[in-house]
Write a structure and sequence with these properties.
This protein is an all-beta fold. 0% of the residues lie in helices and 48% in strands.
Length: 123
């Protein structure tokens, strides 16, 4: 059974950092593009970042560019999202998703989703 499990969320003060992990089981992430998405209460799901399976190329939404970094460790079958200089507007449930197609930050492109991890940025 293909499964993605996010972890690493929590409560952090503005300006702080968190590293989210997306661990896969039942399949090998090497061949999958991975996207990170987030959804705040009352808002639509937003694409944050993605990384390709082929050459490791990355993409970031303007709202997180320069603050977030996506990376993958195929040996650990895990993708990470390093989040620095966090702002209150980054508060959301963060989801990772996987697909064998090209990378992108449109939710409908992805077939497999994790259950999400809550990130709260507040003083």
């Amino acid at each position: 059974q293909l499964q993605l499990v996010e972890s690493g969320g929590g409560l952090v003060q503005p300006g702080g950092s968190l590293r989210l992990s997306c661990a896969a089981s039942g399949f090998t992430l090497d061949y999958y593009a991975i996207g990170w998405f987030r959804q705040a209460p009352g808002k639509e799901r937003e694409g944050v970042s993605c990384i390709s399976s082929s050459d490791g190329s990355t993409y970031y939404a303007d709202s997180v560019k320069g603050r977030f970094t996506i990376s993958r460790d195929n040996a650990k079958n895990t993708v990470y999202l390093q989040m620095n200089s966090l702002k209150p507007e980054d508060t959301a449930v963060y989801y990772c998703a996987a697909d064998r197609g090209p990378p992108g930050i449109i939710a409908s492109m992805y077939d497999y989703w994790g259950q999400g991890t809550q990130v709260t940025v507040s003083s």
